[in-house]
Amino acid sequence: MSKEMIKEIGKLSVIELAQLIKDLEAEFGVSAAAPVAVAGPASAAAAPAAAAEKNEYKVVLKDSGSDKIKVIKALRTVTTLALKEAKDLVEGAPATVAESAPKEEAAKMKQALEEAGAKVELV
After folding, report:
1. In sequence order, which residues have a C-beta less than 8 Å from that of residue 40 and are 6 or more positions away?
2. Which of 79, 99, 100 is nearest to 116 (CA)?
3. What pTM was computed for the model?
4. Count of CB atoms within 10 A of residue 97's CB?
5. pLDDT confidence band for 45 (50 / 70 / 90)
6. What are the structural domain ranges in the chain?
7. 103, 123, 43, 38: CA torsion to nearest 10
8. Neighbour order of strands in the sheet with 95-102
9. Residues facing 61 on adjacent strands
10. Measuring CA to CA, which residue among 86, 85, 77, 88 is closest to residue 112?
11. What CA–CA distance (Å, rounded) separates 111 from 74?
């Protein structure tokens, strides 16, 4: 059954897959930052299919959290932004941090920003 589900998910367009993920998040009351195991089997099947298809991600700062200074510092370590640009981006959340970032780089950005207290989404 799970192999059939993965094959069906693999046939979805990126837009349809994004909508499926949103629907699963709403159905199971989880967010993209939550561990996949919490969402249950349907979400666990959707995540590998999405990861297998994408090599580049858009890194989106959803919320800067309560300690914006830490987030600004973290943002400057993972990007080439100057202080003012980083401050403006953090204060303007939600905002795009990087377009078409390679998978590993996007994961590093997300980790660094989340450790500073920000909420980040990879699209």
Report:
1. 28
2. 79
3. 0.55
4. 23
5. low
6. 2-53, 56-122
7. 80
8. 95-102, 56-63, 119-122
9. 95, 120
10. 77
11. 10
Average pLDDT over residues 105-122: 92
Q: Tell me which CATH code domain 56-122 carries.
A: 3.30.1390.10
Beta strands in the chain (DSSP E): 56-63, 95-102, 119-122
Report whether pLDDT(34) > 50: no
Please report, as a single letter, which amino acid is at residue 86: A
For residue 95, the cross-strand partners are 61
Of the pLDDT bands very low, low, confident and very high (cuts 50, 70, 90), residue 33 is low
Total length of the chain = 123
Between 60 and 28, residue with greater pLDDT:
60
Q: Look at residue 32 in the predicted model and tell me its pLDDT.
A: 59
